[in-house]
Each structure stands twice: as structure tokens, then as C-alpha cells.
Design goal:
Blueprint lengths: L2 H21 L11 H10 L5 H14 L3 H6 L2 H8 L6 H16 L6 H5 L6 H12 L8 H11 L8 H13 L6 H15 L17 H5 L15 E10 L4 E6 L10 E2 L1 E4 L12 E11 L3 E10 L11 E5 L10 H8 L3
Parallel strand pairs: 1-6
Antiparallel strand pairs: 1-4, 2-3, 2-7, 5-6
Helix pairs in contact: 1-11, 2-3, 2-8, 8-11, 9-11
Length: 341
Amino acid sequence: MSRKQVQITTDFSLTLLRWFRENGRELPWRETNDPYAIWLSEIILQQTQVKQGWAYWERFMQRWPKVEDLASATEDEVLREWQGLGYYSRARNLHFAAQQIVAKGGFPQTIEGIKALKGVGDYTAAAIGSFAFGLPEAVVDGNVYRVLSRYLGIETPINTTEGKKEFASLAQSLLPSSDYGTYNQAIMDFGAIQCTPQSPKCIVCPLQESCAALRSGKVDTLPVKQKTLKIKSRHLIYIYIRCKGMTAIHRRGEGDIWQGLYEPWLIESDKFKVISDKSSLKMIAKGVKHMLTHQMIMADFYLWEPDKRPTLPEDYIWIREEDIDNYGIPRLVDILISKLG
């Protein structure tokens, strides 16, 4: 690295640290170096905004204050507590990883050991390692991609192999000589508060004089991301059965969305025609739209109140209606059930 590059690196890092001291977010998991509390926050905040994830973190910490407590819980209990956050594989991985940690006799203290935990990738391992153990590992998340691509004018797509390698190397080279965890928090907060996706605060940015995107008028076009996502449309029909205070639900299996969560009688749209007598079904909601990362769900919701329990597939169980809150259900199903009144 040339003397000029070293100076750029130093100026950039010190500027972010100064900015962070005045503007950084005060978050409860930043007030501890407990790797369990930090790991829990990082898993919850994957695909989740801080405002929403904060309450979940507090509930998890209150119910399971130590990793041993979480490891001893059942998967159903964890899924129920996770309900509403989406991406339920995170909850299953969280539970499995807690058991891994207990089996190892404690939280791993190396990047390799942390990455060996279920559901932990490069970013999460770097965050936990630097925040809890002071390891010199740079985080690279959406905020970091945005800050670095704009500041340095990098147009390599961030969702390509080339882009991921380039930004990972660059982020590591920008680490200061100490305070790795603080610097990682600084660059992430800078992206979340200052260098935001829309309407970034360029006028009052401490990096404005040296920001390549601001000089070239490319703030709104960086970072670059290749469009590769294909959205699958899907039509689901739910029939909520109410029979003498009881209802029927089943647990979703592997290989599809919402694995391990419970739902009422589900019929995919192409099989709905097999129900010969639809006159006894009461339409509660039609065409309810629910977006997932790779799927757009359109759901219809019916109420059926038969005099006796109908014959259902073997994996359905009958429970009291008031007990449904004891089962983890997808957010969409929760929305539909709330419409029953």
C-alpha cells in the first residue's frame, strides 16, 4: 500500500470513528461484550430493521438469558417466540447453534469457530468476533457496500463473486490499527444514518470533500447490483375449521416456506376443485397479498363450521381454538385468523 493509500485509509477510518462518537446509535447489545447477547442480536437483525428486532431481542434475553437456556428450549417454543419476524430458518438455526455452543463448552472465540455455527456467515462472524472478542475482522453488510462503493466510486456489482471479493478485501484494508469492533459499528451506523439508500445527508457529510460518488453525481446509482431475483407467484387457500370449540392445524414440513410452523387446512388452488360442496364454506378474505423474498403469495381464507369433525390428512391435529396462540404460525396465517373476529 502506498503512502497516499495509507493516508486515505487513515483519514477515512478516523473520520468515521469521530462521526460515530457523536452520532452512533445507543443499542442494548452494544453495552455488553457477552457473545451470546451479541450473537442473538446479529441473528435477529438479519433481514430485520433495528426498530422491530429490538423488542424481539429483549424478549429472547428475558426468556432465555443464557445460551444454555435457549439450547434447552424446544424448537416449537423458539419458533413461537420468533413469530412475526419471518425467515424462520433463522430461528431454527439459532436454536441448533445454541446447542452447538453448549456442546462445545462455550462460545467459540475464533472467526473459524464462530463461522462453524449454524446460520453464521462471514458478516455475522466478523461482527461477533470484533464486538465480543476484539478480533481484527471487517464486517461487510449492505451499509458497508453502500458507503464504500459511493466513497470510492466502485461500480463492481455487489452481488457478484468478483464484487464480494473486492469489497471484502477493501473493507479489511480499511480497518484501523485498533478498536476494530467500534470501527465496524461506526461504518454500519454511518450507512444506516448518514449514507442512507435514499436521500443520503451529503450536504452535512464529513466525507463529502473526498467522496467519489458525490463528485461524479453517482450517489443515486451506487452501489450497483445485478438483477437476478425471480419472483414466483403462488395461490394458497386456507380453510379454518371451527367445530365445537376445536380447530385443526398441521405442521409444515421441510423443503418449503415456513418449515416447522403451524397452519389451518391448506389447499393449493389447483386442488380446491375437489371439494364438492363449497356452500358450507364462508369466505372471510380473498386475494390477500403477502410478499416473501422469492415468492408472492395470494391467499384466500374460508371458515367452515361442520357439525362433526371432518376426515383430514393424518398430519392434522385438533386443538382448542384458544390454544392456537401456543403454536408458532406464519405471519400470513396470523393475519388471516385475525380476520375471523
